[in-house]
Amino acid sequence: MSAPEAPNQPQSKTDLFVSFSILALQGFGGVLAVVQRELVEKKKWLTREQFIEDWAVAQIMPGPNVVNLALMIGGRYFGLAGALAGVAGILAAPMVVVLLLALAFGGVSDSAWAQGALRGMGAVSAGLIAAVGLKLISALKSNPMGMPVCIALAAASFGGVGLLRLPLAWVLLAAGSAGCLWAYVQLARQVTRKEQP
């Protein structure tokens, strides 16, 4: 069963640039929640299933996930120029904000209130990421691997990185390879079933 197509798409490279600039300015500490809300719920450039697939690819590519996603979405609709517009939108405005904050924060970075604020924002980011994960889990119902296998792979990844403190690259290689192999087997079975009269 193929995933449904998204109802909307970016109107121009300028639309890509502006949309990703606004998105980037909202993402403090973790952009997953913002990206999902903006691209899936508001703009409807991606369905939930497409978002999960694209985000998974963005995570295994080197570099920041949201930059990789902007690159993929821009390239999908407008080729190389669109990919560059998406990446420029993600990077331009936040770079200016970060430089200004670095100037302002440099003088107070050692104070207790500044350290406490940073720790608090870390907790908020973790909560946002967990909330989006729970929100998107229903999209796995249509995943060809099946919900139990998806949950098992997620649990194994969390256990490996979060609890056992194994290197991310090794966990990604092991769980990713197992997931790819199982998805290949399941998709081959689906094709075989369709071909049978």
Q: How would you describe this protein?
A:
- There is one protein chain.
- This protein is mainly α and about 200 residues long.
- The protein has two domains: about 1-140, no CATH class; about 145-195, no CATH class.
- It is about 75% helix and about 0% strand.
- The chain has helices spanning about 15-25, 30-40, 50-60, 65-105, 110-135, 145-165, 170-195.
- The two termini are about 15 Å apart.
- The mean pLDDT is about 85.
Quick gist of this model?
The chain has 197 residues and is mainly α. It has 7 helices and no strands.
Number of contiguous helices: 7
Kindly provide the radius of gyration, computed on alpha-carbon positions and rounded to a whole number of angstroms: 19 Å
The figure for the number of domains is 2
Our estimate of the beta-strand percent is under 5%
Q: Secondary-structure element sequence? A: HHHHHHH
Low-confidence stretches: none
Instruction: Round the mean pLDDT to the nearest integer and report it.
Output: 86
